[in-house]
Amino acid sequence: MIPTPNLDHLSPGDYELVYEPAEDTFLLLDALEKDAEFLRNEIKPCICLEIGSGTGCVSTFLGKILGDGTALLICTDINPYASAITNKTGYHNSIQLDSITTNLVNGLLPRLYHSIDILCFNPPYVVTTSDDLYLSKSIIEKAWAGGIDGREIIDKMLPLVDKLLSDKGVFYLLLINENKPNEVCEIMKNNYHLQSEVLLSRLAGREKQLILKFWRNTR
Amino acid sequence: MRLVTHNMLQCHVKGCNSNNFPLQLSDVEIEIQETDFNPKFLRNMLSKLEWNALVKTALEINITTLPNVLPNDLDEEFLKMLHRVLLETHIKQGQMICPNCNHTYPIKDGIPNMLLSETET
């Protein structure tokens, strides 16, 4: 069993600036742990990328699974505080993380075309209005507000997944039922020939959360 | 920001599609942070690197140890030198300037900021 990353270095004030790990985060950790042997022995990643790393909890956990220094762990976040906290969390757990402040993966393509072996995204998935998404001034709201069907940011990311994933690459995506996960799988299959499965699902209060896993046909 | 990460970044200003890599380092503050040597990871990483860009960037910060052409024989001495340049050299502060459009991306507290204003995207 791999322990949850230690976040003792963060204060309540930090959680006013960055999304605090919650059930969704822990479901993604459990999914990665479930796939730990597969990631270590079959994927043997060189470059991993997490979009929207927040506290850095997920990439730190991935680093613990893989072993520090065995892969490059790039973390992006649109929130500069999150980028700083991500690096700190890695440091406090002896995992080297490489934070970049950017929107999704801006500045990394086409350079990293078909180069990412493990891609993780816990997106802003909560169903809101488009205005909540685009007019919000709150840095925390940006971390969870997903617009119509909670899909507005997710749908921006889907075409980029195909550009980023290496031949052996896998993509882990957290969704809730309201995001219409079946539809997401159809889009990925029809547009990009990416296969998928539900790796894990759980009820968190009234929210049905799932981890979808995607990979290329060629694998 | 480590040099390995810098090697992955390119300008993404709208319409800036050529000669936009590598971003030129300017006014940088450098710190060496030691980390465990892992030759297997370095060998894997070499196939993902843009070598010429790495050599060029290293020279900008007065690191002259990298050969212009990647040697065929990747012995331990070479890999240890590469480890130091790629994984232990951190840019703490400074700027990255696009060689094509001159857009400047700041590096603050070791983190590159690739965000653009709405008019630039």
Automatic annotation (TrEMBL), chain A:
<dbReference type="GO" id="GO:0035657">
    <property type="term" value="C:eRF1 methyltransferase complex"/>
</dbReference>
<protein>
    <recommendedName>
        <fullName>Methyltransferase small domain-containing protein</fullName>
    </recommendedName>
</protein>
<comment type="similarity">
    <text>Belongs to the eukaryotic/archaeal PrmC-related family.</text>
</comment>
<dbReference type="GO" id="GO:0008276">
    <property type="term" value="F:protein methyltransferase activity"/>
</dbReference>
<dbReference type="GO" id="GO:0005634">
    <property type="term" value="C:nucleus"/>
</dbReference>
<keyword id="KW-0539">Nucleus</keyword>
<dbReference type="GO" id="GO:0032259">
    <property type="term" value="P:methylation"/>
</dbReference>
<keyword id="KW-0489">Methyltransferase</keyword>
<dbReference type="InterPro" id="IPR007848">
    <property type="entry name" value="Small_mtfrase_dom"/>
</dbReference>
<keyword id="KW-0808">Transferase</keyword>
<dbReference type="GO" id="GO:0008757">
    <property type="term" value="F:S-adenosylmethionine-dependent methyltransferase activity"/>
</dbReference>
<dbReference type="InterPro" id="IPR004557">
    <property type="entry name" value="PrmC-related"/>
</dbReference>
<keyword id="KW-0949">S-adenosyl-L-methionine</keyword>
<dbReference type="InterPro" id="IPR052190">
    <property type="entry name" value="Euk-Arch_PrmC-MTase"/>
</dbReference>
<dbReference type="Pfam" id="PF05175">
    <property type="entry name" value="MTS"/>
</dbReference>
<feature type="domain" description="Methyltransferase small">
    <location>
        <begin position="47"/>
        <end position="143"/>
    </location>
</feature>
<dbReference type="InterPro" id="IPR029063">
    <property type="entry name" value="SAM-dependent_MTases_sf"/>
</dbReference>
UniProtKB/TrEMBL annotation, chain B:
<dbReference type="InterPro" id="IPR039127">
    <property type="entry name" value="Trm112"/>
</dbReference>
<dbReference type="InterPro" id="IPR005651">
    <property type="entry name" value="Trm112-like"/>
</dbReference>
<comment type="similarity">
    <text>Belongs to the TRM112 family.</text>
</comment>
<dbReference type="Pfam" id="PF03966">
    <property type="entry name" value="Trm112p"/>
</dbReference>
<dbReference type="GO" id="GO:0046982">
    <property type="term" value="F:protein heterodimerization activity"/>
</dbReference>
<dbReference type="GO" id="GO:0030488">
    <property type="term" value="P:tRNA methylation"/>
</dbReference>
<dbReference type="GO" id="GO:0070476">
    <property type="term" value="P:rRNA (guanine-N7)-methylation"/>
</dbReference>
<protein>
    <recommendedName>
        <fullName>Trm112p-domain-containing protein</fullName>
    </recommendedName>
</protein>
<comment type="subunit">
    <text>Interacts with TRM9.</text>
</comment>
